[in-house]
């Protein structure tokens, strides 16, 4: 029997600064990957995508391309309506790129792509009703219901990051104030550290010294590193973060009642600093606490590759469905 030829799909993770293209096989393994800066005009961005596919095509047979996009798409995943860090505005990206590449193209929201990766090949295999909560610069979220991506009537669900949880709270880039992601994300760690440092006395805190030196240079990573080194301000910031994450988990559980919540995104690699505490808060704050099963809470297995792997698999499935 002749062996079936290997099938590869390219999964793109298109961020505001860089785009990565992973060549993904049928088992969700990234065989090789390329990256390039994300251009700031529509034409250059689309050309940049084509260039990376061309480079991968010289060595591998490619049957489809998937794009994980940080932005709002229409429910049919044809049009990028708005992406805050990308030039596309109401652009029929899927059809345009399909013509330019001469290959089938699948478009998907970045959090949905990452959730699909974990669902097919990672931490959520076998879970039918579950939520991905991606904690990074902001909050990304995806809901898998009965094994399918849930997107709502107009393609924007679920958008937990911009739930207004504090009236008159911290200003958000979306134009509102008091949004959840201003309290429970990597950016939130920085806000909280500055606020706590201005109110309280934290003796022997290197973090306070750093804030005094240059408050604008502070990053979420500096805070988690400080907490790991038992810096008193770092620990206080992570305690505050854990409480907010507990609130967030309880909101998700009360609204959607999932069986599993997976923490993904850049902050998930520091979950040992906050997750147990957050789950303790969550378990006491859901309605009917003590009289209902708790959703399992864990971290993703695919890390920053989840989006590329997920959208490549979705692209491959679209081809199979069209045959
Ligand atoms: Zn907001």
Automatic annotation (TrEMBL):
It comes from Corynebacterium crudilactis. GO terms for molecular function: ATP binding; glucokinase activity. GO terms for biological process: glycolytic process. This is Glucokinase. GO terms for cellular component: cytoplasm. Keywords: ATP-binding, Kinase, Nucleotide-binding, Transferase. Belongs to the ROK (NagC/XylR) family. NCBIfam families: ROK_glcA_fam. The keyword Ribosomal protein does not apply. It comes from the Bacteria. Its EC number is 2.7.1.2. Transmembrane segments: none annotated.
